[in-house]
Amino acid sequence: MTLDNPPVTPASPTDAPAWLKWAEVLLVTVASVGAGFWLRPEDPLHLGNTFAWPAIAPLLVGLRYGFFAALCSALLVLLVAGWQTQLELSQSYPWGWGAGILACGLIAGEFRDYWNRQLERSRAVNEYSLQRLEEFTRSFYLMKVSHDRLEQQLAGSSGSLREALRRLYAELSQTAVDDFDDEHATLMLGVLTRYGQFQSAAILAVEQGQVAEQPLAALGDFESVSGDDPLIRYALERRTLVSVQTEYRKHLSKLDTELLAVIPLIDSAGTLSAVCAVKAMPFFNFQNRTLRLLAIMAGHMADMISQRQADVVGSSEWQALCFQSRRAALDAERFDLPATLLRLEVAEPDLALLEERMTAMLRGLDVIAVTRSGSSPAVVLLMPLTDELGLAGYLQRLELDIRESTGRVLWEFARKDALLIHQQQEALNWLLQVRTDE
């Protein structure tokens, strides 16, 4: 409803033009009185009868048009009665008869007006309810369209990067990634498709800077692609995700490609092992937010490929922490994603307790490892996607947990050292310092 289009109130079934209303009042009254003069000329007003039949006129008029019309009709009947008594000088004016005529019409008119007001009130409530129902229906369909569009926009996404990466590691860790073959390529393409809703895509191996024409894994009608494709060349040169969104305006005359985007799989050491070439995906997914998420996930996939092939000294937990730290640092440099490294040094008798409590509080992406340096062992924790406020909240929860479980204060037996990761080199230096302290 707007001010330019106000709602139109439908006419009441009893509404009638004014001329018709008063014509009916006059006609009914004249007919009622005239019938008495015609059928009973010796007593046309039924003054001597057991029932005052002229009361029918005000009664009918009152039921039809309400109090005022009934009053007018009754007054007409009373005027005729006064005229009749003047003609017959032997009779006095019948005041009781007149009061009955007047009361009969007015009661019927008031009855009609009362129920007409109730009817109008019910009609107004019904009109308001219908109007609100129409507004609700429009809002519902608008919300449904918006909700469907939002579902499409976030299709396959859990709503957070943390949850997406957690699912990625949960699925890919179920298989041994000792070598990059068709099986692992198919699994990785499936994960990327879940979040990008690819309709036609493939993962192509990269060897000595050249992209293989035949894919390791393909989806849809993707069969092969030329290594001279402009998007693939730009992706290999820049070693970053490229799409027609970013390259179309820069290379309008040179951009002859069937691809929408090319996502390189580059690990934290800078090794390019494969690319994901996308030919078709829904328009609502082809946006910077989705492409950014896919680029981050592709980097983590590349790390999982190279993690077991690299030679890192230390336990498996320490190796995992080092690899994840390098990836977190690279994400901080490229995508400005926060990450934090935390080290808590304790005495050897308290190490098991601290490790147990910190392990119990691990989140989906956190990586923990224990280092020992003579009499100064420590627990090192990597917290991806965690800034200074997140670190403060974690330490507060850890302190409260230890206090509730042991009755001790954390800082009475532990010493803290933390690093908010901004660059890859500072993270590597920090981890190297931890190892050299041993």
From TrEMBL:
<dbReference type="Pfam" id="PF16963">
    <property type="entry name" value="PelD_GGDEF"/>
</dbReference>
<keyword id="KW-0472">Membrane</keyword>
<dbReference type="InterPro" id="IPR038367">
    <property type="entry name" value="PelD_GGDEF_sf"/>
</dbReference>
<feature type="domain" description="PelD GGDEF">
    <location>
        <begin position="324"/>
        <end position="408"/>
    </location>
</feature>
<feature type="transmembrane region" description="Helical">
    <location>
        <begin position="20"/>
        <end position="39"/>
    </location>
</feature>
<feature type="transmembrane region" description="Helical">
    <location>
        <begin position="51"/>
        <end position="83"/>
    </location>
</feature>
<keyword id="KW-1133">Transmembrane helix</keyword>
<protein>
    <submittedName>
        <fullName>Polysaccharide biosynthesis protein</fullName>
    </submittedName>
</protein>
<dbReference type="InterPro" id="IPR031583">
    <property type="entry name" value="PelD_GGDEF"/>
</dbReference>
<dbReference type="InterPro" id="IPR029016">
    <property type="entry name" value="GAF-like_dom_sf"/>
</dbReference>
<keyword id="KW-0812">Transmembrane</keyword>
